[in-house]
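Revision sheet: structure tokens.
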Amino acid sequence: MQKYLNVLYYEILLRIREIRRYKMQIFSEAMMFVLIFIACIVSDWGSSFIYELGVSKDDSIKFVFIGYMIWQIGCIALGYSSNFIKTEATEGILEVKQQSVFSYEVLLFFRMLISVITSISISVIATCILMLFWGWTFEQYVVCIKALFLGIPVIVGMFGMGLFFGAAVLHEKNIGKSVMI
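Predicted:
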């Protein structure tokens, strides 16, 4: 167990180094989150919840927020696992990682988990800022964050799908943009 915690620790350190080197990536990720979320709110995507479920406008915004966050987490889990396999195969380090003491899937899962945690942290900070504009109370915000724990099965499932697409990449050498579809 201690070995796996050490691997997780070093993956965290690698992610922190990556964040320090590529600050613009974090900024652009935060901006994309904010802009897409604002587009969802402005386009009034939550209005169907008002009519179909009989909820208030404020609750419909919360539903859109929760759905958007779970969708974002799923996309990260799917994209990271398949893209890491493709990148490491292209760079020639996939074979070295497969010969590691730890299974490649565990290493990949830790890396994806750290990326998801980073993305959620960025989203939580951006949401705090958005919360001020929409006048949410702290309790409403906490309810939305608690609802995100429902996305944990999504992370595991989409990670598995990412491994499937990664295997397709290794077999076919290139599958284009079918992961994003």
